[in-house]
Amino acid sequence: MKIWVDADACPVVIKEILYKAAERTKTLTTFVANQYLSIPKSDYLRFLQVESGFDVADNEIIKRMQTGDLVITADIPLAADVITQQGTALNPRGEIYTSENIRARLNMRDFMDSLRSSGIDTGGSPAFNQGNRQNFANNLDKFLFKNKTK
């Protein structure tokens, strides 16, 4: 089992949690981004820089991930593809996307996109907070414990 991180929009605090978790659990974690990213030296951390472009990082993650891998992303279409590939998707706020909830998330995303393209101000996401950070860390730890002990 490996961890793949959609790193371009991943909050720094989440990356730091992932650095520590990779070391603690000896889990290979790859940060995929189209911008250079400095990561700590580790046997368990990798950085993969991809070309700039729409969904280039997402497509690279899907191409490389395997059944049972964990993908960290706030990108709902990428999360849907991860689930289709029999992986697990966890967003930086700590929500685990599942086959049961992904369709509703995709529908809401499309609805909000429609509102925004019609000129309606939807206000955006709430600010990232300590509760989000804690929820992410808790769900990451649960996933790693469950999947490292199999």
How many whole angstroms does the radius of gyration measure? 15 Å
What is the helix content? Answer: 40-55%
Order of helices and strands: EHEEHEHEEHH
Major beta sheet, strand line-up: 3-2-1-4-5-6
Q: N-to-C terminal Cα separation, in Å?
A: 10 Å
- Provide the residue-averaged pLDDT: 90
Structural shape = globular
Number of separate helices? 5
Structural class: alpha/beta
Largest sheet properties: 6 strands, mixed
DSSP summary, beta strand count: 6
Oligomer: single chain
Low-confidence stretches: none
The proportion of residues in beta strands is 5-15%
Features:
150 residues; alpha/beta; 5 helices; 6 strands; 45% helix
Topology record:
Blueprint: E1 3-6, H1 12-25, E2 29-33, E3 45-49, H2 56-64, E4 70-72, H3 76-84, E5 88-90, E6 96-97, H4 102-117, H5 130-148
Parallel strand pairs: 1-2, 1-4, 2-3, 4-5
Antiparallel strand pairs: 5-6
Q: What is this structure, in a nutshell?
A:
The chain has five helices and six strands. It has helices at 12-25, 56-64, 76-84, 102-117, 130-148, and strands at residues 3-6, 29-33, 45-49, 70-72, 88-90, 96-97. The longest helix has 19 residues, at 130-148.
Describe, in plain words, how this protein is organized in 3D:
The chain has 150 residues and is an alpha/beta fold. The chain is built from five helices and six strands; from the N terminus they run βαββαβαββαα. It has a six-stranded mixed β-sheet, sandwiched between helices. Helix 1 links the parallel strand 1 (3-6) and strand 2. It is globular and about 50 Å long. The relative contact order is 0.16. The mean pLDDT is 90.
